[in-house]
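Model it.
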Amino acid sequence: MRHLPNIVTVIRIILVFPTTWFLWQGNTLQAFALMLIASFSDALDGALARRYNWKTDLGRLLDPLADKFLVAAVFIVFTVQNLIPLWLVVLTLGRDLILLVGGTLYRVIIGYVKVQPSLISKANTATQMLVLLLLMASQLPIGVVGFYAHVAVDDFGIYLLAVLSAVSGVHYIVVWANRSSKALKFKKLREERVVDVEVKSNEGGY
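Modeled.
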């Protein structure tokens, strides 16, 4: 049972493919339903992990990746369909790419990195899901509700999402740059101490 949250997360990753396929084919209702399931699963796996202490390093890695895969795929489809401006996709996916490259470099150069999304990053992900759901709803034959969903995205959602993406991206860069600087200093100090111990050990041997 400990791996149940990870299984839910993997299911969310699998849902990326049929969701984008339905959306691309114009079957918005089916895509909307799968998007709702994916959003629910995002809340479910986190709740299970916290409630029963089923947190794992794999889960910390897979959970944000699942969100990014889904959001990126749907964003790209909507951009091709001219429903989302290209600049927003570049900003959103560019931010995620920078974080991915930065995390990889940190892992290679410094060592283990514990993935822990910040509050503003969680707000950004929630807003992304909401905007995409509203955009899907605007494409459904639901009359005035669809119209207002489209207005909400065009007048508020896109710009709120742009601000959150930019702010959360800058926040991550500042936080991880500071963390990297401290980690490198600590690593250098530890290496110097190891060298000192070896030198003293060699001197004692003589």
